[in-house]
Known about the structure:
Layout (H helix, E strand, L loop, with lengths): L27 H4 L7 E4 L18 E7 L3 E10 L2 E10 L3 E3 L4 H20 L14 H20 L5
GO molecular function: structural constituent of ribosome
Family: Belongs to the eukaryotic ribosomal protein eL21 family.
GO cellular component, one term: ribosome
Amino acid sequence: MTNTRGKRRGTRYMFSRQFRKHGPIPLSTYMRIYKKGDIVDIKGTGTIQKGMPHKCYHGKTGRIYNVTQHAVGVIVNKQIKGKILAKKINVRIEHVKHSKSRDSFLQRVKANEKKKIDAKEKGTWVELKRQVDKAKMHSMKHLSFLHHELNDWYLNSPSLG
């Protein structure tokens, strides 16, 4: 048989409900407040077929540009062949939720503000940029061990030594 080209082709697990989460969705879903500029995650809920996003947008994160009574307009990046295009889609609020991707950024901003105030009181300078983690000691020991092993092998090999 040939493949069908339906809207929901290949979504057997994508739009299925979790174990013990079947039935009507909680009312808190409808009580969430969305504003222009909010960052949201798109996740199709199989219980409600109205206003469901296409499967290619499932799991994507976008920014709200329009809010209506039952739905929101979201700008999402979509890769089409070699290009990444900003697509505007309308999705009902049952299929979106506030993204947690911005939380770590906001926490860092608050921490940086506190560091700035403390540094100003003390009259010192403080580094606000995130620093790359240094290599852990156990990995350094492992690398030095490998280096010695390779060095011994090279010196003891009859054809190379």
